[in-house]
Design a protein that fits this description.
The complex is a heterodimer. Chain A has 14 helices and 6 strands. Chain A is an alpha+beta fold. Chain B is of the alpha/beta class. In chain B, the strands form 3 sheets. An 8-stranded mixed sheet of chain B has the order 2-3-6-7-8-9-10-14. The chains are: A alpha+beta, B alpha/beta.
Chain lengths: 304, 316
Amino acid sequence: MDTIEIDQIDVNDRTYCISYPLEDDLLASSIARFGILVPLGLTERKPPTLVTGFKRMEAARRLGIDRVPHVFLDLDNHGALLASIGDNMKRSLNTVEKACCVEKMNALGFPKEDIYEMARLLGLPARGETLRTARAVNSMEEGAKALVARHNLPLPVVEELLWFDAEELASIVRLVDPLRSTVGLFREVVRSFALLKTKKGRIAFRELEKETDMEGLRQSLKRATHPLLSRLEKRLEKIRETSDLPPHIRVKVDPVFEKESIDIHVRARSQMEVDDALERLETLSHQGFFGSIFELTHGSTDRN
Amino acid sequence: MSSLTVRQTETRGSIVRNCPGTRHYVCCGYKTIDLVEGCPLDCSYCILKGYLNSPGISVHRDTAGIIEQIEGAVASEKAHVLRFGTGELSDSLALDRRLRLNQPIVKFFGEAKGPLLELKSKWASIDHLKSCLNPYTIVSFSLAPQAIVDAEEKRTSPIRKRLRALKEAQGSGCFVGLHFDPIIIYDGFEEDYRRLIDDIARSIDLKRVIWVSLGLLRFLPSLMKVYMREGRRNLLAGEFIMAEDGKYRYVKAERIKIYRMLYAQLLGWEPGLFVYLCMERADVWEQVTGIRQIRQSDDLIRLFDSRIREFYGGSR
């Protein structure tokens, strides 16, 4: 393989770079052990610039490698960007990278149909809004971009993050980035932030800082956006606590208190267990356990 | 509204349909005549934004065919008085001065002297219809506090004009309907609704109001994003849950509280008013009105039949 000194390459030219983030510890440790196995693609300009291999280049620099294997690619601007995208599509791209592909194609003047075709290949909706979102994602602050990449957030969630101004977004990033979360929970939390902003006009971030996990944050936001529902939940919890329901009897209540009916589930392995369960249910009924629950499911209580 | 694109559509299939009720929520058995699809009034909360997937407005002009469909529906229903409305997929009156779609339908109902036609609107323009209005046409207006009209129904007629139009309709021999739908929870809504009901009671003859509907704001999930993106603070001030019909609705306990308040205020002015809940659960009906027997659509339709008998006589 031909090699070239890194100093001879214009490594600051990122025209064709769609990788984010460039730092990749796994790749760096592989290169440290085996070296760069796939040559970097370079333009034939003087000095040459990178077309493919931005992550490899970053790893090489971090490892203090001064020569890298390369091939020169005889490509125009469009061809070079497509080569870069094609090279990266061998792995799964995060939303920042997908947005970057779309935005760079747009910036380099690709026809709309070609951009939409690429969007489809990347699993993004082929519509004008995607172009606007891609531009906005590219303009995001570094912290927000890192959040999107680190948590592997899909485009719909990223679109919702874009509803916030830069200051709000920075606060959200600061709150949620350290917390472990599923994408679904993340989305619910972002939605709650947006709802809170719409309802109150502002978000009191300081009051949320005490939360140390995503579920706690979700609950805090819910108390702010849905105080009545949260109170109903709390009362149901209290009713359950005082009933001392045995584990083989479960009473399922609609979590949003819309359905008037409740489901009672009994697990029994013998006639005796059935009799025990029925006796327990009868006692609970006489104690007003079910009546209290029906007050909640019928919305009939005056103590809301 | 003159800059709007209104296109004529060939009438294929039925445009006289059953109101799309949903399970678990009691439907009133209304029939819709979709003369126009799409609405120029563009209210911020409009559920049509979630239902109609083509921009612009389509109109059906095949009057003879439409009347034939209405006759077919009437002929197939022996047990109840059918109520039809043209305000489901559009506003009944917003474009009518220009398009003159309602006139032949209004005349048809006047001659049929059985089923009822309801013109449901937020656009106070009935002059062009006055010559053909008849007791079998119900002129109805959706009503909301002026604060909501100003913020969320910007292209509609102000409330004072709607009330004046209702009074004129009563003067022309029509019964009228009032629709508090959507009722929106926002800061100070209780006082605004109290004043609105007072204004209505002072403006029109409540004894000649055939029905009043109450319906709290509910909407498709896709509209939640729209409301948030547009910063619709009024619309999202209350607490919404995802209900069994896949729509966002206010928490049930809150709905009951508000319905009770409005129900009491309305009956306080006229105890004989017929107030119904639009698409609500049986237990909400019971909590609000004390009526236990509204479990399904047929039960509510029977209530309507009896109300119609009060106004028109007859045996059905």
